[in-house]
Write a structure and sequence with these properties.
CATH superfamily: P-loop containing nucleotide triphosphate hydrolases
Largest sheet: 8 strands, mixed
Number of domains: 1
CATH topology: Rossmann fold
Number of helices: 13
């Protein structure tokens, strides 16, 4: 019993040490992709849940304004969305929605033209109010829209790090590279974490990751962190149809195990041990173009 108690104490201490990395504020991570249909939002949702299961407080901000899907994937109808935030004087903490396994999320709303084309005033109000989330989360995941729009690039540049999601399809890889190049023109220290989704096998995933990282280093001078891959898995499609996270619906599936590995890599800094957390304050300044 004493040995068990000691092991428990060690586990708690280890978790606290990992959380100490966030003293500068929550870790702000933008999850993005060069094109739609690569499973970016599914990665965001399941990664958030996996991190929450490890004891971290996680908030997802669905920044695909007007075309949000986080709530759809979770099968949750949020009481409030960014639409309510924009149309009223509600605080950003008022529109938080409880999700599974302790995560929280903010829905980007859907079917509203005003959300798709936010004015600079509305965008500034959103990002400045995000400061109020300091203390609510250890990790904030920004699920951006797909493609190379101004909003996508702004969020990617502002975040302390970016997770770039691609699939083995040549068009997806090409668009992911183009997005990374666009980000690099506006940010000196680009921190790109690459995930290959829907890979047929490990060999294919590793080859794509290596080729992408080599090209980024050779032609752009960017060191890409090889965060991991998610194998193609029928359990993912089934979970989407049931509006459940696949790591909950099928925790022992190949895809779920891949996500668990990615979450571990992200937290342990296995591939990027020198990561520095800039926190919400720096995120807001970058997003608004301030120094």
């Amino acid at each position: 019993m004493k040995d068990q108690a000691e092991r428990l104490r060690q586990m708690v201490m280890t978790l606290r040490e990992k959380r100490d990395k966030n003293r500068g504020g929550p870790r702000v991570i933008a999850v993005t992709s060069g094109k739609g249909g690569v499973g970016k939002t599914n990665i965001s949702v399941n990664l958030a849940i996996s991190l929450s299961k490890q004891g971290y407080k996680v908030i997802i901000i669905d920044a695909d304004f007007g075309l949000a899907n986080v709530d759809v994937l979770l099968g949750i109808i949020p009481k409030y969305t960014f639409k309510d935030f924009i149309k009223s004087q509600m605080s950003i903490t008022d529109i938080l929605t409880e999700g599974p396994c302790g995560i929280r999320f903010i829905s980007g709303g859907s079917g509203m033209y005003d959300l798709v084309n936010l004015s600079s005033t509305h965008l500034e109000r959103i990002v400045e109010d995000i400061c109020k989330l300091d203390g609510w989360a250890d990790i904030i995941i920004i699920d951006t829209a797909a493609g190379i729009s101004n909003n996508v690039i702004k969020f990617a540049v502002a975040a302390s790090e970016t997770i770039l999601v691609t699939t083995p399809e040549p068009t997806s890889i090409t668009d992911a590279y183009a997005l990374m190049k666009a980000i690099s023109t506006l940010k000196q220290e680009v921190r790109i974490n690459l995930i290959v989704n829907k890979a047929e096998n490990i060999k294919e995933a590793v080859e794509i990751i290596d080729r992408f990282a080599d090209a980024a280093n050779k032609f752009l001078g960017i060191t890409v962190t090889k965060l991991g891959y998610v194998l193609f898995d029928g359990a993912v499609t089934k979970a989407v149809k049931r509006q459940q996270a696949f790591c909950i619906a099928s925790p022992n599936s190949y895809a779920s195990k891949c996500i668990q590995t990615i979450a571990g890599n992200l937290i342990d800094g296995r591939y990027n041990p020198n990561i520095r957390v800039s926190g919400i304050g720096t995120f807001i300044k970058r997003l608004l173009g301030r120094r």
